[in-house]
Design a protein that fits this description.
Layout: H1 10-20, H2 45-51, H3 55-72, H4 79-99
Helix pairs in contact: 3-4
Amino acid sequence: MAESMPDYSPQEDLDYDMYYHPEEFNNKGDSVESPSHYNTGTVECIDYLKDNMPFEVYLGYLEGNTKKYLHRWRYKKKPLEDLKKAQWYLNRLIKELDDGT
């Protein structure tokens, strides 16, 4: 017997995002290219991760995030935003492989 999809309420994600990331609802920052909650210090989170992971692990991180956003876009209030996030991570993965760094 096929498993049924769990009940999903887009409002749950919206409530969470509005509480934990209110800046995204005040038109501050770009929630795809450079989310403000990832830039609170002097180093952007993605650069920190790259510098503190073995290269293969970092590539797996980029691949995993690409897959995550491709998996969940259908269930989000802003599906296009999640597809753009998947594209961002895929582009970053391609760049890293192309640069070979």
